């Protein structure tokens, strides 16, 4: 699927960058068309690169790239945007997955005309991510197709109407996997409080979330609400538990506060410009 794409320069071979790179390689991107740039790659990334035949560069090679993907922390955005200039040609497309950093800032500091903001999540690593995407006007249908090909290797892709929508996607889906992993931790902790040994508590909590997520995927015509109701016997145990979780100060207001905090932080990261 990605046989004709590249060269793709991935700047930042960290958790998100490598999650996407795994998807691209699985989708047929040739390792010699993927250029990793990271001055400080982890040992697992170095191992992966040598296994697959990828070269890791200290800085961006002085050669026009078709696509440059920025997956570094927003805090180093200024330096990194200035450093990618040697790889930018007239037709290069810059795709940033950095939370908060605006298109205007990226245009200004990198000099790249075609800029796309994308917000993926780490399930990209197994092709089950979802990515929100927004581009500037210079990005044409051909560029969008290339971006779609790359991003679809990570899972679903949703093009957004406004740049601020990226901040909303960040708070819901970019950060969302962490909320679910924390739910596993919380469920295990509650199991322990109710008398289960720690190892057994984590085993039951983790597999319960894995199983529930699997059911959402397998039974994708059935709403989450219906799947919940399928578990809930009248006046049974689930009903008793949900009375707490669905109460006025239960999960909905907590989740609203959680997502609001993440969305506001995404907006703040953009304001530090
Ligand atoms: N981790 C996640 O779930 C998600 C992260 N993001 C975004 O992805 C970006 C990266 O986040 P993570 O992968 O979690 O961070 P990370 O810390 O795992 O990776 C960042 C990588 O950038 C490298 N780096 C630092 N300075 C560099 C430079 N000058 N040139 C090239 N590489 C450099 C680091 O050595 C590191 O390997 C952030 O902007 C974040 O907002 C977006 C969606 C989800
Ligand atoms: O925590 C963060 O800032 C990044 C963006 C979305 C997920 N991780």
Q: What's the end-to-end separation, in Å?
A: 37 Å
Structural class: alpha/beta
Give the spatial strand order of the biggest sheet: 3-2-1-4-5-6-7-8
Number of domains: 2
The low-confidence runs, each spanning 5 or more residues with pLDDT under 50, are: none
Tally of DSSP β-strands? 8
Strand content: 5-15%
**The CATH superfamily title of the largest domain:** NAD(P)-binding Rossmann-like Domain
Overview of this structure, please?
The chain is of the alpha/beta class and 273 residues long. The protein has 2 domains: 8-161, Rossmann fold, CATH 3.40.50.720; 176-270, ProC C-terminal domain-like (ProC C-terminal domain-like fold). It has 11 helices and 8 strands. The chain has helices at residues 15-26, 43-52, 77-83, 103-110, 141-152, 164-174, 176-193, 198-218, 224-231, 237-245, 251-271; strands at 8-11, 34-37, 56-57, 67-70, 93-96, 114-119, 129-135, 155-159. It has an 8-stranded mixed sheet, sandwiched between helices. Strand 7 (129-135), helix 5 and strand 8 (155-159) form a beta-alpha-beta unit. Helix 6 crosses helix 11 (251-271) and helix 7 (176-193) packs across helix 8 (198-218). The model has no long low-confidence stretch (mean pLDDT 95). The chain binds 1,4-dihydronicotinamide adenine dinucleotide and (2S)-3,4-dihydro-2H-pyrrole-2-carboxylic acid. (2S)-3,4-dihydro-2H-pyrrole-2-carboxylic acid (A1CAB) is lined by residues 99, 170, 174-175.
Write the layout of secondary structure elements.
Layout: E1 8-11, H1 15-26, E2 34-37, H2 43-52, E3 56-57, E4 67-70, H3 77-83, E5 93-96, H4 103-110, E6 114-119, E7 129-135, H5 141-152, E8 155-159, H6 164-174, H7 176-193, H8 198-218, H9 224-231, H10 237-245, H11 251-271
Parallel strand pairs: 1-2, 1-4, 2-3, 4-5, 5-6, 7-8
Antiparallel strand pairs: 6-7
Helix pairs in contact: 6-11, 7-8
Bound molecules: 1,4-dihydronicotinamide adenine dinucleotide and (2S)-3,4-dihydro-2H-pyrrole-2-carboxylic acid (A1CAB).
1,4-dihydronicotinamide adenine dinucleotide is lined by residues 11-17, 37-41, 71-74, 76, 79-80, 97-99, 119-122, 174.
InterPro entries: 6-PGluconate_DH-like_C_sf, NAD(P)-bd_dom_sf, P5C_Rdtase_cat_N, P5CR_dimer, Pyrroline-COOH_reductase
GO biological process, one term: L-proline biosynthetic process
Pathway: Amino-acid biosynthesis; L-proline biosynthesis; L-proline from L-glutamate 5-semialdehyde: step 1/1
């Amino acid at each position: 699927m990605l046989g004709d794409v590249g060269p793709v320069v991935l700047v930042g071979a960290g958790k998100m960058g490598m999650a996407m790179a795994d998807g691209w390689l699985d989708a047929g991107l040739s390792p010699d068309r993927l250029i990793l740039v990271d001055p400080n790659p982890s040992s697992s990334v170095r191992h992966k690169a040598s296994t697959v035949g990828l070269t890791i560069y200290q800085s961006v090679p002085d050669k026009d790239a078709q696509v440059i993907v920025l997956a570094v922390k927003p805090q180093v955005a200024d330096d990194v945007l200035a450093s990618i200039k040697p790889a930018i040609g007239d037709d290069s497309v810059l795709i940033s997955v950095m939370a908060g950093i605006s298109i205007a800032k990226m245009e200004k500091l990198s000099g790249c005309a075609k800029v796309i903001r994308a917000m993926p999540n780490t399930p990209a690593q197994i092709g089950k991510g979802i990515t929100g995407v927004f581009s500037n006007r210079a990005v044409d249908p051909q560029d969008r197709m290339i971006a779609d090909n790359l991003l679809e290797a990570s899972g679903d892709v949703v093009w957004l109407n406004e740049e601020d929508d990226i901040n909303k996607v960040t708070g819901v889906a970019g950060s969302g996997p962490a909320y679910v992993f924390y739910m596993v931790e919380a469920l295990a902790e509650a199991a322990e409080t109710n008398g289960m040994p720690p190892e057994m508590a984590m085993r039951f909590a983790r597999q319960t979330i894995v199983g529930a997520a699997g059911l959402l995927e397998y039974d994708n015509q059935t709403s989450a609400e219906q799947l919940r109701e399928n578990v809930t016997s009248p006046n049974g145990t689930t009903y008793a538990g949900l009375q707490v979780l669905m109460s006025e100060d239960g999960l909905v207001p907590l989740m609203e506060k959680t997502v609001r905090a993440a969305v506001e932080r995404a907006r703040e990261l953009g304001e530090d410009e």
